[in-house]
């Protein structure tokens, strides 16, 4: 798994728009331009106050080592100090670099969302993390996580069996690639004026400095 330790320089709206027009030279379609709403839409439910002026968008993989470390470490402080206090909101988008098991886990999280327990299930997957490509993500393990967060298993399995969210997960991966994501975790921290990109499980201080930029 790539883990490029990089904190990008803040990018102004005009320059950022130019960058994405380079990605999509013929784009008159707002779905292909980089806007606050397009970065948020189609991802996870918002964690935190939807009106928070600063958004952290994470592109992650449930098997990714550094995603796991972020969720078990840095995110706890960000959640306590910024998300729970209404200053920042968090959105997660799947970027399943580790293959079919990661895609399956991502579908499981969205099936849990159908029962209004996306974040509980999301967190349960990371709590049970057991490495990259080691076979720990199975239908049995996903059912176990579902039971732990008190999902209706019949509805959960019906959702997984139908592959209801497979296209959504694939679209999120494609979107990430289009905007330059090539490693997990990758973060876009933004408001309606600027965006800062962070790649990798950076130290907490990097996230704190980034949030201070806003």
TrEMBL record:
GO terms for molecular function: oxidoreductase activity. It holds the Pfam family Thioredoxin_4. PROSITE patterns: THIOREDOXIN_2. The keyword Oxidoreductase applies. InterPro entries: Thioredoxin-like_fold (IPR012336), Thioredoxin-like_sf (IPR036249), Thioredoxin_domain (IPR013766). Keywords: Disulfide bond, Oxidoreductase, Redox-active center, Signal. Residues 25-214 form the Thioredoxin domain. Belongs to the thioredoxin family. DsbA subfamily. Belongs to the glutaredoxin family. This is DSBA-like thioredoxin domain protein.
